Amino acid sequence: MTTDVDVTERTPLVALTDIGKRYGNVRALEGVCLDVHAGDVTCVLGDNGAGKSTLIKIVAGLHRHDTGSFRIEGEEVRLSSPREALDRGIATVYQDLAVVSLMPVWRNFFLGSEPRKGAGPFKRLDVDFMRRTTREQLLRMGIDLRDVDQPIGTLSGGERQCVAIARAVYFGAKVLVLDEPTAALGVKQSGVVLKYVAAARDEGLGVVFITHNPHHAYLVGDRFVLLKRGTMAGSHTRDEITLEELTSQMAGGDELDDLRHELENRAPAGARG
Ligand SMILES: Nc1ncnc2c1ncn2[C@@H]1O[C@H](COP(=O)(O)OP(=O)(O)O)[C@@H](O)[C@H]1O
Ligand SMILES: [Mg+2]
């Protein structure tokens, strides 16, 4: 009995094994592995062009992998659309959030899944319910918006990421994928987003957090996957790696040493011709 439970608990929500993907002649991914567990934050780190977005587009149902295996709760899948991913509980928040900026926050929260009341020709949007629920759900995630009627475009980039996270939680996502949610944000706003990443994790979601910032990753991450030019450059659980090691691997430790050497050997600015 107990062993059955253990096995179920260890089956990842999402398991990518030896994933390969080409765009024509460009090899975007080769031999990449990624496990996502409930209540864990899995960070995907890598420089520009490392293949991070390609990897999460496969998870999100936007692209299909060429080789390897993609399993959702143990079942082999080939997703054909983002809708299919969403139906299986995988919600993705893209960097350039597809929000209609003049829409009130509550309208955006329910976009595409609006509840209606009444019947037949009298059926209409349940605006009161949407307003109330949006406010409640944001509060539950610790976001206290004074006015859910304000246009979503008036929120800061960080707040918009947070609304998207709260929305995924409310609509029952099991896996939440965030593509560089802190890339364009300042220190304070990044902190706010990281708090909601932790809140989603505490709700039991499996979070995939894409970033090129090892400091942000280490603040919330349980496991770390490093990509380099489309291949695996490392995969570690939190107790296997320190922030210093993660930072050094991200910066390409050796390359950075070479660069330091080169810069130190240059003549000081004042001594130059
Ligand atoms: N739609 C596409 N068509 C052709 N090449 C692409 C496409 N998307 C990404 N690539 C290429 O695949 C590689 C990985 O890109 P990407 O996954 O966007 O990396 P990252 O998100 O880590 O910056 C890059 O060389 C990029 O130019
Ligand atoms: Mg990217």
UniProtKB/TrEMBL annotation:
Q: Where are the transmembrane segments?
A: none
Q: Where is the ABC transporter domain?
A: 14-254
Determine if Iron is one of this entry's keywords: no
List, in alphabetical order, the Gene Ontology terms for molecular function in this entry: ATP binding
Lineage: superkingdom: Bacteria
One Pfam annotation reads ABC_tran
UniProt entry keywords in alphabetical sequence: ATP-binding, Nucleotide-binding
What InterPro entries has UniProt attached to this entry?
A: AAA+_ATPase, ABC_carbohydrate_import_ATPase, ABC_transporter-like_ATP-bd, ABC_transporter-like_CS, P-loop_NTPase
- SMART domains in alphabetical order: AAA (SM00382)
Q: Which PANTHER family match?
A: CARBOHYDRATE TRANSPORT ATP-BINDING PROTEIN MG119-RELATED, SUGAR ABC TRANSPORTER ATP-BINDING PROTEIN
Instruction: State what protein this is by name.
Output: ATP-binding cassette domain-containing protein
Supply the source organism for this entry.
Streptomyces glomeratus
